[in-house]
Amino acid sequence: MMRPRELFGVGIRILAVWCWMQGAYWGYRAIVKSLSPGAGNPNVPMPEDVASFIFYVLIGAILMGGAGALIWLGYGDAPKTGAAPPAN
């Protein structure tokens, strides 16, 4: 059974992967627009697609790289293994 601390870590990492998938989508859109200017939504310029690509890739990297720090901020230090449970 997963403890809330571990589940929170999994959630952060899933969010990071989702951001990378969004980055891949916006990168693909930017490439398609650069190859054929008439493709895609004409109201969204290509630099905005590139900016979205960079944003999502960076946020995903920050979330994945800083998952341990975010878990520490939310739950504090990890419980010591082998320690006796606190007395009631």
Low-pLDDT runs of 5+ residues are none
How much of the sequence lies in strands comes to under 5%
Radius of gyration: 20 Å
Helix content percent band: 55-70%
Number of alpha- plus pi-helical segments: 3
**Ends apart, CA distance between termini:** 23 Å
Average of the residue pLDDT scores: 89
Secondary-structure element sequence? HHH
Shape: rod-shaped
The largest β sheet comes out as: none
Structural class: mainly alpha
Counting DSSP E segments of at least 2 residues, the number of strands comes to 0
What does this structure look like?
By secondary structure, this protein is an all-alpha fold. Helix content is 69%, strand content 0%. The chain is rod-shaped and about 70 Å long. The two termini are 23 Å apart. The model has no long low-confidence stretch (mean pLDDT 89).
